[in-house]
Amino acid sequence: MVRQEVDGGVAVLTLANPPVNALGAALRAALDDALTAAIADESVRAIVVAAEGKVFIGGADIGEFGKPQHPPSLPDVLDRLDASPKPVVAAIGGAALGGGLELAMACHGRVAAPSAKIGLPEIKLGIIPGAGGTQRLPRLIGPDVAFAMMLTGEPVSAEKAASLGIVDAVVLGDLVAEARTRALELADAGTLPRARDRSDALTPEARERFEAQAAEAVKRDPEATNVHALARAVRAGLEQDFDAAVAVERAEFRALVEDPRSKALRYAFFAEREAARVPGLPKDTPRRTIKTAAVIGAGTMGGGIAMCFANAGIPVTVIETEEGALARGLDRVKGLYAGSAKRGSITEAHRDERIGRISSAIGLEHAKEADIIVEAAFEDMGVKREIFSKLDSIAKPGAILATNTSYLDVNAIAAMTGRPQDVLGLHFFSPANVMRLVEVVRAEKTAPDVLATALDLGKRLNKLPVTVGVCFGFVGNRMLERRSRAGERLLLEGALPHEVDAAVTGFGFRMGPFAMADLAGLDIGWRSRKDFGGRAPVADSLAEQGRFGQKTGRGFYLYPDGARTGTRDPEVEALIARVAAEHGVARRSFTADEIVARLMYPMVNEGARILEERIAARPGDIDTIWINGYNWPAWRGGPMHWADTVGLRTIAEALSRFAAETGDDSQEPAPLLKRLAAEGGSFAGLKYA
Ligand code: 3H9
Fold first, then answer.
1. Which CATH class is domain 293-474?
2. Confidence of residue 370 (pLDDT cuts 50, 70, 90)
């Protein structure tokens, strides 16, 4: 796991623990042994720690957290590195994250390749750095800058790391050779620069700035236990000596590992990666080549999808039926790029390059050269059928034909072509150029190489593709529909829109369902219910009055003078009472907990049905979809993980009660949920082939 080569007085210890050199027990032990041997070897004057692969070190092994620890611990190994009588230099060839950066900071020198990314992302896992990171980083770059970096968890580039003082230099040529040279220089000079001994960056001004930032961070997210802990650990480093402060960090870290929030975030980390593996789709499935793309439709979705291709370096043709729509769509895209360049998130050169990759045309025949065609036309089966039957005679053989439908039957769409094996759904989320989630809809006849290519393409587009099966609304919207229905019912039974929204934001969503409906436009759901059926008596009554939400200044709430946040409207509350009376529904008040149960349990129930029907391969796929496409609070781990924490028996019993109270049999627990509840089981405990 650690290769050791001694040459010219330098021992180069190369870590080799693919895929990301995570510092699991075996690697820690191997590194510790190699270090001990190098220190003992009289021919060795200096030591270099390098790593194989694209990633230097991806951090501690997250999978080991919460399990019995095998020695040596990471802090112990880093203490020995730090205390080495021979200088140690880290050669950071790729990402140095979490424990990886902590290891590098325990060395006496650090050099990085230009492509290296450097950071402490622990906060995103609900924890804080636990191997000296909260102490060494502030000593290198100041408590204020270090706190800011650890608070976002975002890595910085090698260049930035050098300008901040985290690494000593960025090396363009042979990284390990440069690390050797520097290690020998330190040996010659007889100095062992240690981050722990530094105090020059701990100035009174920097301390003051750190305290202001910490106060603000804690105020912004008072429930985030790890933000509080981070502030305490950094502060300990300002008030106590290094060893005492490290002990504070260690205690905070240990407590956080047991925190349900961190458990949920770690679960979500692995669920997201697991989603890339599709049962029954071998790793070595052949892929088709994707060099060019076409997008049908220049609306908001079509434009956003075209941007995804252009951003990934894939030339794309946007196709419309008439000039006006095309020009409007392209203008919108150019406007978005201009905005990004103005904000500085892309350079002007990148903006021009990306816009240059988007061409446009009138008429489907212009899709004939494309390796993949994504249809993002109007959500209407007739329209989609017509497009796909035409594409069948236009697209080149082997081209992948994808539909961006949010609800419709992809099997029926595929059946319009003589090549259903080439057809699948790519359900992007709005705004498509921003949202990471893509539901990849595998239709009955979709060929394995088409699915594998689409999943690879998703990654190339910097997306998070999750494979789902065909059903109305796939995974995300199908479950959302349950929540919407439950929300309407709650209104009739006596909860008011602001009470429901407050319960949902209190649960951790950024927005409640009614504020969200007002933002999206009530006309959308209203029209779709007209087309597809379904009833939402309150929302429909509002839409019938032209109350379409924010854009008309009135919806579930009032938005006077273009306000972005709604205020309560007595008229709406009276309307709800009237509709409830018409439906003969008795009204009462609801607590926030009752509201959450009423809204979320039916979603969990639908999730269970989705699993039974194999529309999603595993609970983690459903959770990944909800966290990344619907703003489910990641620290609650997604609806299925959350359901396990609530207890499936509690949920099943409540659903039976809801069914009895509302007379809605569809609320009865699904057979899978019923079975797991009776067995005392959990979704996490399900075994999949
Ligand atoms: C920490 O360091 C705590 C310390 O402060 C204190 C300790 C005492 N552990 O993402 P990918 C797996 S906390 C275990 O697809 P990429 C991953 O599951 C840690 N496994 O690759 C996947 O497995 P599989 C702080 C890990 O190239 C495979 O590696 N560090 C870890 O797109 C490939 O992963 C972080 O939070 C890990 N640390 O991106 C960084 N990392 O193939 C977390 C990865 O079986 N990691 N795996 O599904 C990342 O951000 C990305 O993985 C990375 C590579 C950028 C490194």
1. alpha beta
2. very high
Phi, psi of 632 (to 5 degrees): -60, 135
pTM: 0.95
Which of 15, 62, 256, 274 should be mutated for ligand 1, with most atoms under 8 A from CB?
62
Rg (CA), the chain: 28
User: Does the C-beta of 233 come closer than 6 Å to ligand 1?
Assistant: no
pLDDT tens string 533-554: 778 899 999 999 999 999 999 9
Rounded to whole angstroms, the Cα distance separating 668 from 662 reads 11
Helix (H, G, I), strand (E, B), or coil: what is residue 372? strand
Q: Is the CB of 128 under 6 A from ligand 1?
A: no
Angle, vertex CA 481, rays to CA 476 and CA 485, nearest 5: 155
Q: Which CATH superfamily is domain 2-257 in?
A: 2-enoyl-CoA Hydratase; Chain A, domain 1 (3.90.226.10)
Name residues whose C-beta falls within 8 Å of residue 637's C-beta, 6 or more positions apart in sequence: 263, 264, 265, 267, 268, 623, 627, 645
Q: Domain residues of the chain, as ranges?
A: 2-257, 293-474, 483-679
Cα 182 to middle of ligand 1, angstroms: 29
Mean pLDDT score, 482-506: 96
Q: What is the pLDDT of residues 167-219, one digit of tens each?
A: 999 999 999 999 999 999 999 999 999 999 999 999 999 999 999 999 999 99
The amino acid occupying position 97 is: L
Best CA proximity match to 22, nearest among 100, 95, 113: 100
Is the CATH number 1.10.357.10 carried by domain 483-679?
Answer: no
Positive or negative torsion for Cα 535, 664, 489, 408: negative
The whole-number pLDDT of residue 535 equals: 81
**SS3 sequence, 240-276?**
CCHHHHHHHHHHHHHHHHCCHHHHHHHHHHHHHHHCC
